[in-house]
């Protein structure tokens, strides 16, 4: 029985050590209801004596403030340019897009801006151009437009990424184990420019540390974290973010082309 | 349900520090305090009617914070239902700005002092060294002239004892 007590004390020390170091403790280090009481007490004592951490981090406060501001702005309307229909568009004024408060919060400002950029032609079916695309989001980036050459396959070995820029889009062409994909380089959180980290094969946001995998999905969010902590990160990225926008892309004669909505 | 521009930001500016302190005093670490604070304000954007009286808005926010904290601890209690009173003893709805100007949760500080004071000497000592002197287990063991293993057991028993005392004084 002494052994079991030692083991419990040992495990509980993991909880305590994490807490006292200022990190997020895990319920896994707490065995039963009694230990939960002890954990809660330890947390309250820590909260009371570590007053140096009792004030919110200004960066955190500002980040959350921007989400509040986005929510305030989202209640009225988000203005986006109208879809362009046909070859000789008439100026049609501005159309109004209503986004729910929830959508805005989930996506943040960056997502709203990204949506505004990506939404051009959103409701139009793809034109006569029947070329199958690779890994693009038809519903986000389809419609009237044309293909633009943005990279050469020769410059794009497996596991690399190159920046590209068209009039509609800033992004990366990535070669993910032989599959070529175009991904927006705009972080859906606050619109910072993602940078490619070849050693991790991810797109990393320099502002708050979101990492996106080569399919454009958030790789270090809390949901993913539950399966497995993300390489090298001390803790999960705290909010869920939508996938990166993926324009249509195709490879022809060794050239990589990206579909660009007509402006 | 509608509100003028900037209402959420205004509510946020008024309450973010108070809510953060409130949460921090009950979870004791910054990452969780930030997550729960964000949850409160995300919830506010979804559900709070900002045209209500300031006092009602404050009460609503603190109630949501209290629930978020209860949910947080529920995971530690293995889904056992935790009475709200139990999670935040003595809490009553915040009604004005006075609470926010207080130094972070004075009641909690007093409670800690009382708790430590009620403990047997060695128990109090081990908790003081770890929580107040911010020593590691190894340093604590050295300061008390015991092994690290013994220090872990001692702090475990001290917290268990303190939790029992806390229960009786709460009730």
Describe this structure in words.
The complex is a heterodimer of chains A (263) and B (171). Helix content of chain A is 30%, strand content 19%. Chain A is of the alpha+beta class and 263 residues long. Chain A has two domains: 52 residues, no CATH class; 199 residues, Rieske Iron-sulfur Protein (3-layer Sandwich), CATH 2.102.10.10. In chain A, the strands form four sheets. Chain A has a three-stranded antiparallel β-sheet, with no helix packed on it. A three-stranded antiparallel β-sheet of chain A has the order 4-5-6, with no helix packed on it. In chain A, strand 4 and strand 5 form a beta hairpin. The longest helix of chain A has 19 residues. The termini of chain A are far apart. In chain A, 40% of the residues are buried. Chain B is built from nine helices and no strands. By secondary structure, chain B is mostly helical. The chains are: A alpha+beta (263), B mainly alpha (171). At the A-B interface, helix 1, helix 2, helix 3 and helix 4 of A face helix 1, helix 2, helix 3, helix 6 and helix 7 of B.
Relative strand content of chain B: under 5%
Provide the structure class of chain A.
alpha+beta
The tally of helices of chain B reads: 9
Overall pLDDT metric of chain A: 74
Q: Give Rg of chain A in angstroms.
A: 24 Å
Share in helix of chain B: over 70%
CATH class of the largest domain in chain A: Mainly Beta
- Put simply, the count of helices of chain A is 5
Unreliable segments of 5+ consecutive residues of chain A = 75-135
Total number of beta strands of chain B: 0
Biggest β-sheet strands, sense, barrel of chain B: none
């Amino acid at each position: 029985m002494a052994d079991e007590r030692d083991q419990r004390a040992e495990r509980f020390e993991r909880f305590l050590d994490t807490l006292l170091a200022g990190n997020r403790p895990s319920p896994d280090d707490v065995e039963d209801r009694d230990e939960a009481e002890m954990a809660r007490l330890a947390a309250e004592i820590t909260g009371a004596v570590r007053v140096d951490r009792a004030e919110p981090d200004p960066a955190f406060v500002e980040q959350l403030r921007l989400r509040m501001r986005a929510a305030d702005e989202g209640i009225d309307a988000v203005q986006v340019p109208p879809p362009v229909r046909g070859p000789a568009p008439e100026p049609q004024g501005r159309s109004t897009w209503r986004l729910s408060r929830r959508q805005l919060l989930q996506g943040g400002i960056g997502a709203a801006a990204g949506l505004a950029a990506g939404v051009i032609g959103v409701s139009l079916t793809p034109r006569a151009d029947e070329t199958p695309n690779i890994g693009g989001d038809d519903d986000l980036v389809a419609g009237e437009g044309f293909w633009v050459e943005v990279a050469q396959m020769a410059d794009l070995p497996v596991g690399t990424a190159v920046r590209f820029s068209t009039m509609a889009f800033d992004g990366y062409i990535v070669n993910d184990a032989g599959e070529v994909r175009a991904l927006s380089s705009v972080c859906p959180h606050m619109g910072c420019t993602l940078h490619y980290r070849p050693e991790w094969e991810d797109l990393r946001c320099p502002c708050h540390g979101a990492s996106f995998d080569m399919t454009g999905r958030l790789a270090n969010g809390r949901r993913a974290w539950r399966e497995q902590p993300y390489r090298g990160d001390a803790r999960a990225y705290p909010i869920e973010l939508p996938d990166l926008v993926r324009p249509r892309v195709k490879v022809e004669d060794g050239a990589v082309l990206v579909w660009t909505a007509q402006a | 349900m509608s509100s003028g521009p900037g209402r959420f930001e205004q509510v946020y500016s008024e309450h973010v520090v108070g809510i953060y302190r409130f949460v921090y005093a009950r979870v004791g670490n910054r990452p969780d305090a930030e997550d729960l604070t964000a949850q409160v304000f995300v919830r506010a954007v979804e559900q709070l009617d900002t045209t209500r009286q300031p006092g009602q808005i404050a009460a609503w926010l603190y109630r949501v914070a209290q629930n978020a904290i209860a949910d947080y601890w529920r995971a530690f209690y293995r889904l056992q239902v935790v009475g709200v009173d139990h999670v935040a003893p003595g809490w009553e709805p915040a009604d004005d700005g006075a609470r926010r100007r207080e130094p972070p949760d004075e009641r909690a500080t007093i409670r800690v002092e009382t708790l430590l004071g009620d403990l047997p000497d060695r128990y109090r000592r081990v908790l003081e060294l770890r929580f107040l002197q911010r020593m590691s287990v190894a340093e604590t063991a050295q300061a008390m002239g015991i092994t690290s293993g013994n220090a872990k057991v001692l702090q475990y028993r001290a917290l268990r004892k303190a939790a029992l005392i806390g229960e009786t004084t709460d009730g």
